[in-house]
Design goal:
Helices cover 7% and strands 55% of the residues. It has 350 residues and is mainly beta. The chain binds copper (II) ion. The site of copper (II) ion has 7 residues, from loops.
């Protein structure tokens, strides 16, 4: 009993993150050409120094799971300065996302900027906490036309491949294009002009547009809109997208032939049956009903009100199968000795 108790305690300690443990992503940083990135790491504790592990994840959508961390301490109540972070912290250049972890609480922010002859031109960058990385998100307020360009970038916060469905919406909020992006474990997709990111071939008005993503792994995602006239850049963090896309509606079509004293039902592309057919809840149902010999009727409460079927004429009815169950249809015109038994059943599966 005591052994079991100790084993349980050890297990709990192993799977519980330490109080205040934190993980923060800087989705893009650069030390290349005129671009530099400054990072600040803040230790909120009044009493204790903290130790932070920093991982540099180069862009290029490569598997970065093998990257070893660099470790640094932040004394109590201090903001640690990493100007030109790739060079100062990792002794590296290029473009990379950064992952910061600690057993203690901390915060991290960044500024990515271009160096010009008369100063710098840059944008603030949110440090994305792991708990704020998104499976489904939207990047709003994007612009891609002659006046502005828009880049979007992604950092995979997991050790697994991320499969990401991207949907670009234009100025009229209609879907412009859908695309799939595969991101390697811990991979970083460099800021990519949104038209190219979606595979090109876009003529829609993108002067105000937005991008949604739906991923099986959590992402740190952002957009960056640059004024082509001034090169003024704005960093746009992704926001959560809680919308759930309804499944596409399926249309089921049937030809129904009424004759003394039964209904023959033939699904489009299928084999005829007598007096029965089946659809699924939510389907759009199209019935093309005709009388083959004499005048018959067709009624199926609550989906189809009573119709008269004159020989040679086809009556088409369309409805959404919103309610599941079995629904009886029957003849409403006295058509002979077997009229009373002339019926059938539509089954709507849940
Ligand atoms: Cu009848």
């Amino acid at each position: 009993m005591r052994t079991i108790g100790i084993a349980f305690l050890v297990l709990v300690v192993m799977i519980s993150p330490a109080a205040g443990a934190k993980e923060v992503y800087i989705p893009i940083s650069g030390s290349v050409g005129v671009f530099r990135t400054d990072v600040r790491v803040f230790n909120p504790s009044y009493t204790d120094a903290i130790t932070v592990q920093a991982y540099m994840h180069p862009t290029g959508n490569v598997d970065n799971t093998g990257v070893a961390p660099v470790s640094f301490d932040v004394p109590a109540r201090q903001m640690k300065i990493f100007d030109d972070v790739l060079l100062s912290l990792f002794n590296a250049t290029g473009l990379a996302g950064i992952r910061l972890t600690s057993e203690s609480d901390f915060a991290a922010t960044a500024r990515i900027y271009a160096q010009a002859s008369n100063g710098t031109l840059g944008q603030f960058e949110v440090g994305v906490e792991a708990t704020d990385a998104l499976l489904k998100g939207a990047i709003l307020q994007l612009k891609s036309n002659a006046a502005f360009r828009t880049n979007a970038g992604f950092q995979n916060t997991s050790d697994e491949i991320a499969t990401v469905a991207l949907t670009l919406y234009g100025k009229d909020n209609q879907v412009v294009k859908e695309s799939t992006l595969t991101i390697q474990p811990r991979g970083v997709v460099a800021p990519t002009e949104v038209v190219g990111l979606m595979g090109g071939g876009i003529t829609a008005d993108l002067s105000d547009c937005w991008l949604s993503f739906d991923s099986n792994r959590a992402l740190a995602a952002y957009g960056s809109v640059v004024d082509n006239g001034t090169t003024d850049p704005t960093f746009i963090p992704a926001v959560s997208d809680s919308g759930v896309k309804p499944p596409a509606q399926t249309t089921k079509e049937f030809d129904i032939r009424a004759q003394q004293f039964h209904y023959t039902v033939t699904p489009v592309g299928g084999s005829p049956t007598t007096g029965a057919f089946t659809v699924n809840k939510g389907d759009k149902v199209v019935l093309r009903i005709m009388a083959a010999d004499t005048t018959h009727g067709f009624s199926m409460f609550p989906y189809v009100s009573s119709r008269t079927l004159n020989p040679g004429q086809t009556v088409t009815v369309t409805f959404d199968a919103i309610e599941s169950g079995n629904f009886t249809f029957f003849c409403t015109i006295v058509c002979g000795s077997g009229h009373g038994g002339m019926s059938g059943t539509m089954t709507v599966n849940p």
